[in-house]
Amino acid sequence: MLTFYDYLPSQNAFKVRLLQSQLRIPHDTKYVSIFSGEGQSPEYRRINPTGAVPAIRLEDGRVLAESNAILTFLAEGTDFMPSDPFERAKVNQWLSFEQDYVQNTIGSLRYWTMTSKLDSRPADLVRSKMATAIKALQILDEEFSSKPFICGQHYTVADISLYAYASRADEAGISLAPFKHFERWVQRVERTPGFVAEIYPYSIDPRSSGELA
Ligand SMILES: N[C@@H](CCC(=O)N[C@@H](CS)C(=O)NCC(=O)O)C(=O)O
């Protein structure tokens, strides 16, 4: 059976949780206490050298990390990952966009906001992440003005990946109200079969107010 390495407040891990639910993938879950240094233990770094979640271990012992790599691997052969080379490349385009423009901006700002670390971060860095986050939402809003899902007519792992942090922008202090097409896409994703509504605040882990090891 597949082993899934999870940490509940992580929206990177949520991506995998959502896909597993929608594809009904049987798995065992192991929770990694990233704020207690468990991620940096030699045992876990053999699973993911960065020490981050999510990661998976296949039944044959092979391990895979990086949320978007896990999504594309698990979705292979399903409707969530196209087979046409160009359509696959479009999915990869938006998965790369997600890491650079969404996860690295809204993800960081949300984490710092929800764990009261924002004020201790360099103001220039916060401003630059905020500007890129807003640019990302503007781009997505424009994309969703002409199509229901990011790669066209069909829901793919690129939608799952983008949804994880972009839909939580309000928790990073960014109002979604100006992004009407984007908001309609959020609702569309939330209506897909097997959608997982549970989101876990960092406050469920008292250690999350400290810094990562
Ligand atoms: N690019 C990675 C980022 C993973 C990541 O930053 N995970 C966070 C939780 S959201 C984590 O485990 N941080 C602990 C650490 O980096 O030591 C992905 O998409 O999976």
From TrEMBL:
Q: What is this protein called?
A: Glutathione S-transferase family protein
Phylogenetic placement of the source organism: Bacteria, Pseudomonadati, Pseudomonadota, Betaproteobacteria, Burkholderiales
What Pfam families does the database record attribute to this sequence? GST_C, GST_N_2
Family annotation (InterPro entries): Glutathione-S-Trfase_C-like, Glutathione-S-Trfase_C_sf, Glutathione_S-Trfase, Glutathione_S-Trfase_N, GST_C, Thioredoxin-like_sf
Protein source organism:
Scleromatobacter humisilvae
Query: Record's superkingdom?
Result: Bacteria
Q: Give the GST N-terminal domain ranges.
A: 1-82
TM annotation in the entry: none
Cite the GST C-terminal domain residue spans from the record.
84-212
